[in-house]
Amino acid sequence: MKLLKYLILALTTMVGMGTARAQLGNLATMTPNYAYSGGSFTAASQNGPTINLGGLAYATVQVKGTATAFGGVVQGSNDGGATWYALPYVSYASSTPTTVIAPSTTAITATGLYGVALAGLTNVRFATTSATYTGGSITVNIVASANTRVF
Questions:
Q1: pTM of the predicted protein model
Q2: Which positions ≥6 away from 53 have C-beta within 8 Å?
Q3: What distance in Å separates the CA atoms of residue 28 and residue 147, rounded to the nearest whole number?
Q4: Which of 5, 39, 92, 98 is most buried, most CB within 10 Å of its CB?
Q5: How far apart are alpha carbons 100 and 46 in whole angstroms?
Q6: Tell me: the pLDDT tens digits for 101-126?
Q7: CA–CA dist 86, 73 (Å, integer)
Q8: Distances, alpha carbon 35 to alpha carbons 60, 61, 109, 127, 145, in Å
Q9: Integer CA distances (angstroms), 136 to 29, 42, 63, 66, 127, in order
Q10: What is the 3-state secondary structure (H, E, C) of 65-96?
């Protein structure tokens, strides 16, 4: 009799579980985004803080500020930060949905939002290049996720 009571209790608690539908908001709670400061820069040839990734696959990199001319790269490492490589990125500069987004390997020279694949890397950072740096400062924010890229 006790077994029957537990079975009925279990079945009544599970009613409706098979009808759950995926919602856009649920994905963020399963694989949340992680926000990091990529650093603030005021001159050429500066390195931002090293960010340990721990299994994150993709990041958006927001570059904002008042510098009138600068060059910067998103760098990745697969050996714990001993060796750094410039990563290809995509620019989300266009708001037109039909725009084809192609990866670029040139330096980032404008404020905006950029996307970078991180799978297989142990660390990431932003660095200003030795290109001309004039004007105020730039600030970099990096938001990483275990989700794959969005393009």
A1: 0.73
A2: 118, 121, 122, 123, 124, 144
A3: 9
A4: 39
A5: 32
A6: 566 777 899 999 999 999 999 999 99
A7: 6
A8: 10, 10, 22, 18, 9
A9: 37, 6, 13, 5, 16
A10: EEEEECCEEEEEECCCCCCCEECCEEECCCCC
